[in-house]
Amino acid sequence: MMGEIMLEQLRYDMITGLFHHKKRALLVIISVLLTYVFMCFSYRGLINTADFIKLLFSGMSYITDEKRFVIPNGIWLAINLVLAFHIGMIVNDDLGSYGKLRLMKVGSRIKWWMAKVVLVSASVVAYYMLILAAACSTAIISLICRTVVVNVSIIQNITVPECMKAIAMLVSVSIMISIVQAVITLIDYKIGIVCVGLFMAYTMYDRTHAFIGNYLMLMRYYQGINNYIVNVSIVYGVIIMASIVGIIIVKKCAIYIWR
Q1: DSSP run (H or E) holding 149
Q2: Residue 216 DSSP symbol
Q3: Which domain holds residue 207?
Q4: According to DSSP H, which parts of the chain are helical?
Q5: What CA–CA distance (Å, rounded) separates 122 from 251?
Q6: Is the dihedral of CA 17, 217, 69, 210 positive or negative?
Q7: Can you say whether residue 44 is alpha, beta or left, with left for phi > 0 and alpha for psi between -120 and 50 degrees?
Q8: What is the SS3 assignment for 49?
Q9: Contact at 8 Å (CB) between 77 and 204?
Q10: pLDDT for position 258
Q11: Which of 161, 163, 195, 164 lies closest to 178 in space, CA to CA?
Q12: What are the b/e assignments for 205-221, b being 16+ CB within 10 Å?
């Protein structure tokens, strides 16, 4: 019986957390499309599909002490901030008027929270799949209409398998950040979004190799950052620890009183 209730909670989360946020999904698709059109005008030709995908997730190159002012990669920053807003809202929405009723129906705070962990992880994966699908679709459609292609070599010499491997690691790190944000959202969703913003800012201007935020950027992955972080499993360790902290919070604290 409890298993059926848990599955019902997961189904409810997937529907309300993923399929009922059509405006945010549409915003992502439109943003990718406009970005591609802008880059086509900038380079006076069509961008290679692979290069366009690399551009979206490239991030920033390493910052040296000689560079006192650096312009952030706006596309990469926007992708992460929009995702942070989405994660904050889907968790916060269920802590509103209907959240308490759902928690009572599930009958277990722990199962309620673990359903949120699954929802956050699924949301991150769906978000990046949506971006990749939009990028491939716009590029392929435009290539059918025209033949002039400009290979801008955003990240030179990185192969498609290496790119896919880097994106898989990027998604894993993004899931880690999102679950930590979900834990903070149990207290206040605005604080969670601000914390992600600060993390992004520090990641952009980080001057060291040994920083997990570097995995969020294809540019730095290509430059060899994966050789400097000895234990990649730290990402999954943080995910497990954040999930446990969330269990402790929902079990010990009256999270609805804070609202």
Answers
A1: strand 149-150
A2: G
A3: 1-258
A4: 2-14, 22-43, 49-57, 74-93, 99-106, 109-145, 160-185, 189-204, 218-222, 234-252
A5: 23
A6: positive
A7: left
A8: helix
A9: yes
A10: 43
A11: 195
A12: ebeeeebbbbbbbbbbb
Burial of 165 (0-12, 13-18, 19+ CB in 10 A): middle
CA distances from 234 to 120, 180, 237, 240, 245 (A): 19, 14, 5, 10, 16
Q: CB count, 10 Å around CB of 249?
A: 16
Distances (CA, A) of 248 to 53, 139, 175: 39, 46, 20
Q: Compute φ and ψ for 60, nearest 5 degrees.
A: -120, 150
The pLDDT of residue 48 is: 76
Which residues touch 149 (CB under 8 Å, ≥6 apart)? 45, 46, 47, 48, 143
Low-confidence ranges of the chain (pLDDT < 50): 256-259
For 22, residues 6+ apart whose C-beta sits below 8 A from its C-beta are none
Provide the sign of the torsion angle of the four alpha carbons 166, 33, 142, 39, taken in this order. Answer: negative
Query: Domain total for the chain?
Result: 1
- Residue 257, pLDDT score: 42
Beta bridge partners of 149: 46
Q: What is the pTM of this model?
A: 0.82
What residue type is assigned to position 40 of the chain?
C
